[in-house]
Amino acid sequence: MAKTGIFGALPACALAVAVVAGAPGIASAKELSEKSVRTFMEYAWSLVPAQFTKPNGEIVQVDKKKKDEVMVPVDVAREVIRVGRISAHAQVCNLAEGQVANYRSLMQREDDKKKWSEQQMIYINQLHLTTVMLLTGKIKLVEKQGDKQVVVEERKSPAQSCSKEQAEKVSQVIAEYVKSGPPISTVMAMPGADKREAEADANAKPAVGQPKK
């Protein structure tokens, strides 16, 4: 993205800058160090709700005292962050359908692995959402006496911009990603998550999954 676009409105945080640095290679997050990925993972974990309501009304409890059982491996988290980065670009470019497809393709791929628990799928969803919110300026990192805190920032209108050329590039990247993956099932969408992201809701809450469609 151009300097007047998504770069110009990111939180003042070296970690966030590292995720979006290197455009036009928006599909790559290989420049992120393991330390940076783990930091993103910790931020996402802090925003995971203790209780999650599935589309069918079933409630899933997340034991916040068993982080190691819910967290996913670093290589998986890196891929989730990469996809979340693309979703952030899509949001800035007002590509709502592309953003939803990108998100759902990610969740479908992970679900098809048949290796994650329900709690881990919730965590993957939250890591993606946290990445999007960081890169679009909806949450910021506040450091107080050496401790970093995640703060939800309510912003009425985004300061980022997106040119026609940039939007076309993002659309192309998403189309290629979705095409290379399995068919998307609508049941893969976490309740409220892609709707909230696609609409760029400035009042998004960290506890994903609570709003109903």
Task: Kindly describe this structure.
The protein has helices spanning 14-20, 34-47, 67-70, 74-92, 96-112, 118-135, 164-179, 193-198, and strands at 51-53, 59-61, 139-144, 147-152. By secondary structure, it is mainly α. It has a two-stranded antiparallel ribbon. A two-stranded antiparallel sheet has the order 3-4. The chain has one domain (6-198).
Strand numbers in spatial order across the main sheet: 1-2
Global outline = globular
What fraction, in percent, of the residue positions are helical?
A: 40-55%
Rg result: 16 Å
Q: What structural category characterises the helix and strand content?
A: mainly alpha
Number of strands: 4
Report the uncertain regions.
1-25, 191-213
What's the tally of helices? 8
Order of helices and strands: HHEEHHHHEEHH
Query: Can you tell me the number of structural domains?
Result: 1
Distance between the termini: 32 Å
Mean pLDDT: 73
- Strand fraction: 5-15%
Describe the main β-sheet briefly.
2 strands, antiparallel
Key features of this structure:
about 210 residues; mainly alpha; two-stranded antiparallel sheet; 8 helices; 4 strands; about 45% helix; disordered N terminus
Would you summarize the structure shown here?
The chain is mainly alpha-helical and 213 residues long.
Strand-helix topology:
Layout: H1 14-20, H2 34-47, E1 51-53, E2 59-61, H3 67-70, H4 74-92, H5 96-112, H6 118-135, E3 139-144, E4 147-152, H7 164-179, H8 193-198
Antiparallel strand pairs: 1-2, 3-4
